[in-house]
Amino acid sequence: MNIITANPAKPLTSAADVAAWLDEQNIPFTDVATLNWAKEFPLKPSFKVRVARTADALVLNYRVQEPAVRAVADVDCGTVWEDACAECFIKAPEDAGYYNIECNCIGTLLIAYGQGREARQPLEVEALKAVKRYASLGRTPFEVRKEPTTWELSLIVPFALLPHLHDDGQRADYVGNIYKCGDKLPEPHFLTLYPIDVPSPDYHRPEFFQ
Q1: What digits encode the pLDDT tens for the residues 165-186?
Q2: Distance from C-alpha of 116 to C-alpha of 104, rounded to nearest angstrom
Q3: Where does the chain show beta strands of DSSP type E?
Q4: Full-prediction pTM beyond 0.70?
Q5: Which of 54, 74, 163, 169 could hold 141 in an S-S bridge, CB 3.0 to 4.6 Å?
């Protein structure tokens, strides 16, 4: 996973400033466009990501164009993957466990840690308040909107919330994958940055992290 260490001389204090902050430093988007299960789920929305870091935070910037959106989950630690959702799964190479950072298109968040799908340890709702968020669609929940929609999402996730990344203030050698999903959208879809070679959609596959 390509994580760029951003210029420490350019401070970042607001998630609303993330896109401009990354633009100023010429940090490009990467297309997330792998359809591992194209026969059953052929929809391929436009999905791009930028991942960077400051001395004390992981910075995520997503840009999406899709034919319909949904944002029902309005409380952190809820079922955000059922909505229009962007996800970053990430780990330190030497660690058996990984974090799943999942966020719907209105900034409702889920973060958990563990070694596989089962027995994951979610962060508490109170702890997640430390994550700064910007959602171009606002923060108010809504049911399915069957119309072409472009949306952007930015997150600043303090490394203090991610102790298993063993961060030293400079690391950029993490492995992981980036995902787009929407289990209850009119056309469910499953995009990944790196391929996942299993028969049916399953994002909890750290053996395919890069």
Answers
A1: 999 888 889 999 999 999 999 9
A2: 22
A3: 4-5, 30-31, 34-35, 46-53, 57-66, 69-71, 85-91, 98-104, 109-114, 121-122, 132-135, 142-145, 149-158, 175-181, 190-192
A4: yes
A5: 74
